[in-house]
């Protein structure tokens, strides 16, 4: 009698052996010229007569090859039906969970909506879903679906255009059953009952999982491990196709997002993509597509790790070299390197993968494969969740086991290249640059920002730099696709993060010119716009710092209030550059809200009736936070941190601030960054940076005397008056 499709039936033999049989389709390989590909051997264990050890008993199971049309084999409905005795519905069976009259959509009804649903008597037990012609004792059984832990249930959902009924779908390995009811409550009752029965089933294990367990138990015996690989082609490299996943994936579960098939089908597609890597001229985009699939479908990550461990095991079993000396054969190792820097494998898969890497290092020392194995093993110990898959530049660097260079722009210090890997965070890069610039003992706080024109956003300390570079690459690709769109222009910069402390700056260090250029950039963007008299004084101090004393040959300010600025410049005769920069910072620090982090937010009404959200600018200073209307200097609300009782997230983009007895709701895509700053200011309004040993300065770091004029900071269109003079 044939065994049911998609089931792992446990047969207890008289000698105490445990035999796990499977049907076609679960972890089976197609023939590729090697006779071993058509069979699998399972090493079964039994207690020794003396009781002191376990001896192996070899049982070879010959698997059917994929030959002939599907119709030549036993149909899945007949397979499950053949296991159930032909008897009527049980009258008082304690295993019955729920029973009743339902409609069943005919097979293929979705493609043939003109076929009406058929009414039948359904009985759900702890083991199966049975369908009968009536509820009587002698009713004819119309079919049965054996339930396992891999079955899935969707719904209830209403299908008004087809039947108008509420439907619940139960998915098995090869087919699905759609149960329909005119009442939503009845459909929900069946859906809950089906899910409870499926959840109570013991998890099924594939042959691959059992072999992984045997390998783990025999990890101290290299000969036994090699024998397991030798006798089980499912663990070794193959050029043939894989017709079912190596791990148990649920039946019929549709993958999220358009373009994805059910999980089991996607697992098979992944293996085809792996094999396509060997002959790909540009493997980078193909690798990135595979990684994106695993990011979108987390259930396939362990499956891909196992498939890569299989394909890097060599055709004769591990450890072994690639099938050919073609460099394309190393692409499995390169993709495994990218996977190890992007995702974390599960417990059993992680243990098997680490053992596979260790065996490769021991058997093939001083080879390129051993170098890849060491790199991957170290990466697995550092990898955590990634927001995005690696960029093409990162994939290229990982394929060569090299670091990636990113460029960070520092005001007054030029562009600093920083070597990063897939695990480097924004906080680590900021600390390295702070050390290079000699700012480790500064009272001011600095952070990395992503910037394009007037747009900027602080990066949280734990943000992975590799994700940031991938986002830049994606934005550039999206905007390059638009004919009328310029390059994205996104870049990284190190800038002041929080309130400005201009006191005690050394005239010989890099912090003074760094903060000087940073303050100038903030003032040019009008964040916040100072009064006119302050702008004239700042413009005169900047001219003195750039050109020293007034000279008719020096560049003169544009028309407007140029006479007042020139008069202030002449009065600064004899002031040195460092002194002028220090005076500039001291005057800028007196401007209301200068140096504070500012964010565009929406204030949501907390009244019962609601109201129209207001566009406001949130400023986070050293001692207080304020809300002002765009373009205005006077705040609408100003609250000291001592009056803030709580700061917490209320949604994906909503922040709640409790001030006394009232609550303030703010909406912004940067709420996490805002909450981080507010919570940092609450216990310590004036945080100081921790001390650390200085590092060598950045490459191409210009001499602080004279400071660069930054000709790229041109006047924005429409800007005039004192702000334009300040820029000059």
UniProtKB/TrEMBL annotation:
Cellular component terms per the entry's GO annotation: cytoskeleton
Database matches in CDD domains: FERM_B-lobe, PH3_MyoX-like
PROSITE patterns from the UniProt entry: MYTH4, PH_DOMAIN
Location of region: Disordered: 28-74, 684-728
Keywords: Methylation, Phosphoprotein, Signal
Residues covered by the PH domain: 95-199
Record's compositionally biased regions (Pro residues): 684-709
Polar residues bias locations: 717-728
Classification via SMART domains: B41, MyTH4, PH
InterPro entries: Actin_motor_Myosin, Band_41_domain, FERM/acyl-CoA-bd_prot_sf, FERM_2, FERM_central, MyTH4_dom, MyTH4_dom_sf, PH-like_dom_sf
UniProt domain MyTH4: residue ranges: 237-399
Biased composition (Acidic residues): 29-41
Keyword Nuclease appears in the UniProt entry: no
First and last residue of the signal peptide: 1-18
Identification of the protein by name: Pleckstrin homology domain-containing family H member 3
């Amino acid at each position: 009698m044939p065994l049911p499709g998609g089931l792992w039936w446990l047969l207890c033999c008289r000698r105490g052996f445990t035999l796990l049989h499977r049907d076609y389709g679960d972890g089976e390989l197609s023939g590729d010229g090697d006779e071993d590909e058509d069979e699998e051997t399972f090493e079964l264990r039994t207690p020794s007569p003396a009781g002191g050890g376990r001896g192996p008993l070899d049982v070879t199971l010959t698997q059917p090859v994929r030959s002939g049309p599907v119709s030549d084999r036993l149909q899945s409905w007949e397979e499950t039906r053949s296991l159930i005795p032909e008897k009527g519905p049980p009258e008082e069976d304690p295993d019955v969970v729920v029973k009743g009259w339902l409609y069943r959509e005919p097979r293929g009804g979705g493609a043939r909506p003109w076929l009406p649903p058929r009414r039948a008597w359904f009985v759900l037990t702890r083991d199966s879903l049975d369908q009968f012609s009536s509820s009587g004792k002698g009713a004819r059984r119309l079919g049965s679906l054996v339930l396992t832990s891999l079955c899935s249930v969707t719904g209830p959902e209403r299908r008004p255009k087809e039947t108008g009924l509420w439907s619940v779908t139960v998915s098995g390995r090869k087919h699905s059953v759609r149960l329909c009811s005119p009442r939503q409550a009845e459909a929900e009752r069946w859906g809950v009952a089906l899910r409870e029965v499926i959840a109570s089933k013991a998890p099924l294990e594939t042959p691959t999982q059992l072999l992984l367990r045997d390998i783990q138990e025999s990890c101290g015996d290299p000969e036994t491990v090699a024998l397991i690989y030798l006798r089980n082609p499912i663990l070794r490299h193959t050029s043939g196709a894989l017709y079912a996943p190596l791990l148990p994936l649920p039946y019929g579960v549709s993958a999220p997002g358009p373009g994805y098939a059910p999980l089991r089908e996607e697992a098979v597609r992944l293996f085809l993509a792996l094999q396509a890597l060997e002959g790909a001229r540009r493997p980078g985009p193909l690798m990135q597509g595979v990684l994106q699939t695993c990011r979108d479908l987390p259930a396939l990550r362990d499956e891909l790790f196992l498939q890569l461990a299989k394909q890097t095991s060599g055709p004769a079993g591990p450890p072994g070299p690639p099938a050919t000396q073609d460099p394309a054969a190393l692409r499995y190792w390169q993709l495994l390197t990218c996977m190890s820097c992007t995702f974390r494998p599960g417990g059993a898969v992680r243990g098997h993968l680490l053992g596979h890497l260790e065996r490769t290092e021991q058997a093939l020392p001083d080879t390129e494969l051993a170098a890849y194995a060491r790199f991957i093993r170290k990466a697995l110990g550092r990898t955590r969740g990634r927001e995005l898959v690696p960029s093409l530049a990162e994939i290229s660097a990982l394929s060569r086991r090299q670091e990636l260079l990113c460029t960070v722009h520092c005001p007054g210090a030029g562009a600093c290249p920083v070597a990063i890997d897939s695990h480097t965070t924004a906080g680590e890069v900021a600390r390295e640059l702070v050390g290079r610039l000699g700012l480790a003992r500064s009272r001011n706080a600095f952070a990395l920002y992503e910037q394009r024109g007037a747009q900027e956003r602080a990066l949280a300390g734990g943000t992975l730099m590799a994700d940031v570079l991938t986002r830049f690459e994606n934005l550039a690709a999206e905007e390059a696709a638009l004919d009328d769109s310029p390059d994205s222009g996104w870049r990284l910069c190190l800038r002041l993060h929080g309130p400005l402390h201009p006191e005690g700056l050394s005239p010989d260090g890099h912090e003074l010119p760094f903060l000087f250029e940073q303050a100038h950039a903030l003032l040019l963007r009008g964040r916040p716009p100072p009064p006119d008299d302050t702008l004239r004084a700042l413009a005169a101090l900047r001219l003195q710092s750039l050109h020293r004393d007034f000279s008719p040959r020096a560049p003169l300010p544009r028309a407007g209030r140029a006479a007042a600025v020139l008069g202030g410049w002449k009065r600064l005769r004899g002031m040195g550059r460092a002194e002028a920069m220090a005076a500039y910072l001291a005057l800028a620090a007196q401007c209301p809200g200068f140096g504070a982090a500012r964010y565009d937010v929406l204030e949501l009404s907390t009244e019962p009736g609601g109201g129209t959200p207001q566009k406001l600018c949130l400023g986070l200073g050293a001692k207080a936070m304020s809300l002002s209307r765009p373009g205005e200097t006077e705040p609408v609300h100003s609250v000291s941190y001592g009056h803030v009782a709580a700061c917490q997230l209320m949604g994906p983009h909503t922040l709640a601030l409790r001030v006394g007895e009232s609550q303030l709701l703010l909406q912004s895509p940067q709420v996490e960054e805002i909450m981080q700053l507010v919570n940092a200011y609450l216990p310590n309004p004036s945080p100081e940076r921790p001390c650390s040993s200085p590092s060598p300065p950045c490459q191409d770091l210009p001499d602080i005397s004279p400071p660069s004029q930054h000709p790229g900071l041109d006047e924005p269109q429409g800007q005039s008056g004192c702000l334009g003079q300040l820029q000059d």
